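In this supplementary section we document a worked example of the pipeline. Step one takes a protein sequence of length 855 as its only input; no multiple sequence alignment statistics are reported here. Step two produces a three-dimensional model, which step three serialises into structure tokens for compact storage. The input and output of this example are shown verbatim.
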Amino acid sequence: MNVGMRVRGGLLAALIMVAIPVAASLAVLAVSSPAVAQTVDSIQVEGNRRVEVATIRSYFKAGPGGRLDQGHIDDGLKALIETGLFQDVRINQAGGRVVVTVVENPVIGRVVFEGNKKVKDEQLTSEIQSKPRGTLSRPMVQSDAQRIAEIYRHSGRYDITVVPEIIEQPNNRVDLIFTITEGQKTGIQSVEFTGNVAYSSYRLRDVIKTRESNLLSFLGGNDTYDPDRIEADRDLIRRYYLKHGFADVQVVAALTEYDPQRKGFLVTFKIEEGQQYRVASVNYQSSIGALDGNSLSRFSRVFVGSLYNAEALEKSVEEMQIEASRRGFAFAIVRPRGDRNFEAHTVSIVFTIDEGPRTYIERINIRNNTRTRDYVIRREFDISEGDAYNRALVDRAERRLKNLDFFKTVKITTEPGSSSDRVILIVELEEKSTGDFSVSGGYSTTDGPLAEVSISERNFLGRGLFAKASVTYGEYARGISLSFVEPYLLDYRVALGLDTYYREQLANSYISYGTTTIGFSPRIGLALREDLTLQLRYSIYQQNISLPYYLDSCNNNPANGLLAFNPSPAYVNGVGGPAVALAQGATPDASAIGLWCYSDGQASLPVRKELANGATITSAVGYSLDYNTLDNNKNPTDGLLVDFKQDFAGVGGDVTYLKSAIDAKYYTPLVADIVALVHGQTGLLTQVGSNSVRMLDQFQMGPNLVRGFAPNGIGPRDINPYGTQDALGGTKYWGASLEFQMPFWFLPKEIGLKGAVYADAGGLYDYTGPTSWAQTGEVNVPGCIPPTNSPNVAPNPGTCLGLQYNDSNVIRSSVGVGLIWASPFGPLRFDYAVPLTKSPYDRLQQFRFGGGTSF
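The serialised model returned by step three reads:
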């Protein structure tokens, strides 16, 4: 036993003695393994065709001494895979070498889209990352397919499928084909509101941009489901409530659900209105010793007793902060605080003015303006590099840039500058098309059918200029006009406009004469406030009057010969009366008075006098002052619009006068979505100097003053029963109207139909144009002796006693109903009015229609 134990112990000792040097040798081999000993330059690359060996090796970053360990090799492997250049990357370490074997991705020869009809190839090409002559990356292809589907979803097509297909070609090239199945348009089938008590769903649908699908939806795009638009609508609803006193409002959610039965989305906005608040008090507190807070009170748009209005509050803060900056307190910050009284439903507003951090603008960086010049964007800022950072001025600049309508999106953000008191303003823009080509058509009971072709550019040459050219052609109206506007004259916020025009108005059933006008008018406009604008203008134009041949072809003189003598019926009927009497040297019988040319339909005396005077030139200066607080210029429901204008003619030219006019419209919402409109207007034309006022310069009124009357149907009129009885116009007018506009609740909101009932009253009077004219060959009124120029009768120039006309102060009034349609073809309106009071010589037009379109 002991001998055996010793033998086994000796064998174990021998094995240990042999194992120690072997293990030591293996350890030495491990230290000197190729995976550790290799350098970047010794890496062997296999399988590459286009990518250089040096490029592949560059992804392996060596450690100290230029050696690669296993960690460096793993990092290099990951970096090569992430390049997207290779389908496969393998690394082998054998025989003391590091071998990198790659399989390169093929090159894309073509990118083709099949099945796309609603979205053009150019748009899809610009949106995807896979490009011809680029490397094929399968993850990128899948991402591109998702991007294409997203484009279709934003246009309302959610039943979209995109299948990418890769077709191999020789020389490791492929064609990439996206097969698109567009599917049907996925529209909004219903838009509902829950929790709304103060405002009906009908009213709130006016606030948001999303619309329900209807028969005319193909003319617009707001009936398609767009998550971004839905989210923007939530903010529009919230701001609408905040503007009308609901300080606690919350639009909790916008729920969307796809209904497979109706094949569209159902959208529901969930609203928590809260209480409506009024302003109990407005106070001002300033922590800046040299700045009295109460001195800024005149810039506040919030008043005690008024409804709480978050929009007015924001504008007040902006105006006060800008005013503080003007006074030298560039870092002043105005913050509003509202203390609610939940029982009384009031809010106490306190504007606190504090000294803000002293931060300056280091730079203003503008990005993505590929067309618009930098200076066009920078001039919308009231601050520049080096000025104190003022958030109110930055917000105003952002709002101005959006109002330019040059960009799809505008966003101004800040980045830290080179030091803690410096900031960099980043202006991110996305440009859009600013040119318009339109073909417009319309019809009205006044002007008949009318067509217009126009081309305009809001951002001409990328310099922010506006240019427009238009041609109009209609049954009774034709013309050409050219317009140009420079919004920043000499780098000031003053707009210079230039208009050149040619207009031709033909005779029609409302006027017996035509006019031709060619003119030029420069104008200057400036905003005194956001709600108050001033325009200064100068106009110079030449005007000609013309008569149709049948009103200017009197030929009752037998001495002209058989071929030229074409007597009027009046001449034939009177040949046994006045002609015989005159031949015998006697006075014509009273029964024959009023015959000859004038009694056979000849135009009125003032018209013929204008015709005889020939072309006249009018040179006038004027101005307009506009006050506008409407909530919506296209479809107003609340606010005031006042337009006051004056024009003085006599700065050279052939005529002199002073013309003044004021037009005011006040809208206010009533119950159940009914809107009341109070409309008042008045005008005065004053003679200046010794020149009498022409008939063409006097006011002409009709349905624009009192509905139910024809154009030029109101006011002084030539009453000769044998003449054309032209409207003469007047120098004074006034008008008042009360209208109630209401929706048709039983019709979908998207149809855009509203009804109206109204009552109008007004008057036009005080004609001051020519009433007599001693002109050979003119017979003006009953009582004139006809002129003679016959070899058998002594010459007689005729005796003109003057114009007979009616100029009564009768108040014209009417009541009526109307149909208003905000159609995709443009605004249309139908009116039927019944006159209640009128003058015997007024002309009526109980039905009236007008409208137009751009397409």
